[in-house]
Amino acid sequence: MVFLVDVRLRYSVFLIISDTLKEVQMQHGSKNSFMFTNALTRAIESKLTKLKHEKIKDGVILEAVDFFLEGQGAMEISAHPTDAQASIVRSLVKVVLHQVGASGSYDLSEGQENLLISLCVETMQVESVSERCDILRREKSLTDAVEQGLKYGFESENHLNSGLDQFCIRFYCCSSPQQMRRPPDRIMEEFDKIDIQDDTENDNDGETLASVNPALEALYISSGTLSQARIQLLPTVEYDGLWEALHFDSNIKQKLFSYATISLKISQFSSKTISDAVISNNKLLLIHGPPGTGKTTVCRALCQKLSIRYPQNDLGTFYSTDYRALIIEISCSRVFSRWFGESSKNLDNIFKDVEKLLIENTERGRFVCLLMDEVETIASSRSSQINKNETTDGIRVVNTLLTQLDNLKKYNNFLVLATSNLVDSLDTAFTDRADGIFYIGIPSEEGTEKLLTSTIGELINTQIITSSNGVEKLKEQEIKQCVTAIAHRCSSLRMSGRTLRKLPLVCLSEFLPELPVTIDDFLVALALSVQGHYKGNHVYPP
């Protein structure tokens, strides 16, 4: 089995390690970043290999304490390390470099591994991926392999299983939530007033975001775009663990990630420009489905994972404290102005700012993702608009969108994610440009059970629910049967993921106002909440 392991480093320790590595390199001129990265990687691999499979199953988030099998050498460190703790970290770095560098091979004891992981690692997210099929190796000739594939399709896959677990480990860190939210509605009203004035009087091209968020002061973007978009630097604490919290019936997450990475890799693979007439690579993925199924959330989580895993984790990780990607989330409904003809202008200005960010970040190896939520607002069918005798303003917006998407696909570091609740209402020219179209529906009974289990586990970890042996309680037969029964009822009611996430709050507010609560009481109250949903006794919509 192959496991992708995303290791989040402690930011405070990360800075100490980075400074120490730079100091040692200035003194000795050695490539110590490679040696230290390799040592930490080997320590994590050693611990993961010794863990039982149920602890490293797909989608699990591991705390550093899960790795201290022998319980020796581990050390807790505060969010803001004291001078003594910082000294320990610096000494550990130098010891590891000396020991690994002197021997030329990995030679750390169990205690040193525990100390290294406990100091450096915040959390780890583990995702299992299937090994590649190799039909050709099984068949006698290429012709036989092709015919086998055409005849049986996926049924002909021969997954190779070496019997050994393989771990692909990447490191990242999040300093703090670095984001820029939309200003209040009154700023949007002021923007609409500016629309009818002369452009030269309101040229904001040189305006920075320092007054909004110092972390984004290097980004140049107009106030108009700022009022209609939300910009996030990645990776970020806000989206950490989001990917693992999502549970879908099919391997939709893996497909989305594969499409996104291949789309980016194809554009960077060749030094020559790939002809659009030969290969279509619009860098546009469309995710559609009913409301509340997690479309926007999976897009944000995908961008977070891309920022961690792509481009490939280089050996200079411990020197970089910079962000790796940006996600620009457009509020499509805000693009439309009350003034005729201004909607397409607003959209055009947004794409101009996006292009500036693309140019700025190309040489720095960062990618920019544009997330258009509820894209049917700006990409509705033009023929339908004409048939309904609607104004041409909406048609102009669609034309502008298509033109700008064609213009920006030339950039190698660009990706567009679009979500829609009404895919049938989209313009065919827009859907034709999508490299992949993915449907996310109401969770099945299995998906509902996974979602409820992860939610209850989170409440146990935060001590809102008390349990005699923590989250391990969820593995007990009686508890599993209760969760399965509740999931079956939720599934029969066709609850969306959004509604399922609301159930714990409804459960606690209506039946268990005093916290903490026992897991037995919570499950009974949860069952009552589900039945209340069936009878329509709750204030929130189904």
From TrEMBL:
Q: Which domain of life is it from?
A: Eukaryota
GO MF entry, a single one: ATP binding
Domain spans labelled AAA+ ATPase: 281-444
InterPro entries assigned: AAA+_ATPase, ATPase_AAA_core, P-loop_NTPase, Pch2-like, Pch2_C
Q: Which GO terms describe its cellular component?
A: chromosome; nucleus
Per UniProt, which keywords does this protein have? Answer: ATP-binding, Meiosis, Nucleotide-binding
Gene Ontology biological process terms in this record:
meiotic recombination checkpoint signaling; reciprocal meiotic recombination
Which PANTHER family does this one have? Answer: PACHYTENE CHECKPOINT PROTEIN 2 (PTHR45991), PACHYTENE CHECKPOINT PROTEIN 2 HOMOLOG (PTHR45991:SF1)
Concerning its family, UniProt says:
Belongs to the AAA ATPase family. PCH2 subfamily.
Q: What is this protein called?
A: LAFE_0G14422g1_1
Q: Which organism is it from?
A: Lachancea fermentati (Zygosaccharomyces fermentati)
- What taxonomic classification does the UniProt entry list for its organism? Eukaryota, Fungi, Dikarya, Ascomycota, Saccharomycotina
